[in-house]
Structure formats: C-alpha cells, structure tokens
Amino acid sequence: MAYATSDDLKTRFGTSEITATPEDAGAVAVALDDASELIDTYIGERYTLPLTVVPGFLVRITCDIARYYLYDDQATDRVKEAYDNAIKFLDEVKSGDVSLGDIPASETTSGPEHYDGVLQFTDNDMIGY
User: For the chain, which ranges sit under pLDDT 70?
Assistant: First the structure.
C-alpha cells in the first residue's frame, strides 16, 4: 500500500515537475510504491503493517523519497537533502527515538521478549538433535 498518491506529489511539487507524459504516470506509481516499501522496512520494526492510520507527515516523507527516486541520478541538492532528512527521520523511528504519533496502541508491536530465568537442558532434551 502506497502512503501517498500521485496527486499528493503533484500538490507538493507541481504537475509539471511530476508528470510530463503518460509514461511518467507509471514511473510515479512505481516510485510511490518503492518509497512506501522502503518506509515499511523502517517502521515495520516498531509498528504492525499495514498501518490503518497514516499520519500526514508520512505522506510528506513518502513524497520526498518518491521525488528523489524520480530524479534518479540527477537529483538536485534540495531533493537530495529532503531524501536524506526523510531517511534520518525513519532511522529515528526505527530506533524508537521518534514515534509515528497517534497510531493506536493495538498497532504497535512489543519489542523482543527477555527471559531472566535459567534455561536448563538435560541429555533427554537433546535426544534426536
């Protein structure tokens, strides 16, 4: 599921920048899907996917990443900076330093469980291994 639409991109960056030909529409859809998949690799560490509530700032971040993808190897400094800031934010979400805000508690996942007890194995436990 893409976190932003081509209309979101056009609203933020202008129609002339985002689509010039019908072929560009396909590239825009791919860039949005790729951006959303990248975001999922970061937020999936902390939140159950797919999100049922998409915070507005996640739409902006998706647009910044997709725009960077659309520029390919010709990204301007401004486009690259927006991409780098988006990745930095996603790193902070992944590490737990930043949250996605009002995501319902039922969507957040718990961290790894820790067992403080002592596990004991006997020879019988290891039969067949």
Answer: 104-129
